[in-house]
Amino acid sequence: MIRLNDLKISYRIGNRVIDAVDGVNLTIPDRCVVGIAGESGSGKSTLMKAIYGDIQSPMYLSRGSIDYGLKGSDGQPVTTANVRREWFKSMSYIPQSSMNSLNPVIRIRDQFIDFPGADSNKKRVLERARDYIGKLGLPPEALDSYPHQLSGGMRQRVMIALATFFQPELIIADEPTTALDVVVQKEILMLLMELQEQMGNTILVVSHDMGVHYQVTHKMLIMYAGRVVEYGDTDSVFADPQHPYTRMLIDSLPTIGDDSMRGVLASAAGAGGDRAYGVTPDLIEVKPGHFAARAEEAGVSA
Ligand SMILES: Nc1ncnc2c1ncn2[C@@H]1O[C@H](COP(=O)(O)OP(=O)(O)OP(=O)(O)O)[C@@H](O)[C@H]1O
């Protein structure tokens, strides 16, 4: 179980401070797929990076803490201070545009060999990698290729293979299917979910596609202007959304995989400056396990 305690993450740019994530309090159960949605710039990537422990200047932790509920490879509890030691082993991160994050001048096989925490016996790593990528729908020759020789979907499968190679307990996937065509998007997400079922781990997945969230997540977390405005079981959030921004996202639900509404949603919600809704720091439990910021407190009459 991961517990976020009053988390506030900011960026310092010269004399200016941007509070990108503020007052986040929530618990993520084990073996859970949590979908994160929200307007552009609402702090989703910042929150994901903070959970991953990738807090580097100009980003900093202004307040709060994270309890990972995990034991590291040395048997000690994982904390924000030592979380980096657990990268790839206990937790891994699939960043935005990750299929372009593969080093272009290194063959895929060497990306597995050079992987932090990999076995020092290269032959053994390669045998395991060849076997593993086969299970993930990649031909064995992919291992001998350079990234540019593979399609976008294949590169994304390689990224997923790298991120899941050590069966981490937590995987953070930040828009893992952006820039892929609709059919490949669905295949990649289904692959990730199959792996989650097999490994029994927790996945946090950021996506703008509410159809995807409805299909694959157990819990939904909705962000707006740096705050979590709603968090609960996906069925409950979709059946009875409480915050007006959540309602707008659900009402605008496009056909699964259809990206055409993304820009519309972002601008309707006031991305880029104007805020359609006020934000409150506290979530209220509207029914067991379903938390939301109240609409009237958020400055909007429901
Ligand atoms: N490196 C940075 N330096 C300064 N400000 C930043 C930096 N990265 C993000 N921010 C600011 O933090 C806020 C949250 O950004 P973040 O990238 O977390 O949002 P997001 O919800 O992931 O957006 P998107 O859906 O567009 O990826 C925004 O106001 C953004 O401008």
TrEMBL record:
Similarity comment text for this entry: Belongs to the ABC transporter superfamily.
SUPFAM superfamilies in the record: P-loop containing nucleoside triphosphate hydrolases
Name used for this protein in its record: ABC transporter ATP-binding protein
UniProt superkingdom: Bacteria
One Gene Ontology molecular-function label: ATP binding
Compartment annotation: Cell inner membrane
Matches recorded under InterPro entries: AAA+_ATPase, ABC_transporter-like_ATP-bd, ABC_transporter-like_CS, DNA-dir_DNA_pol_B_CS, Oligopep_ABC_C, P-loop_NTPase
Signal peptide: none
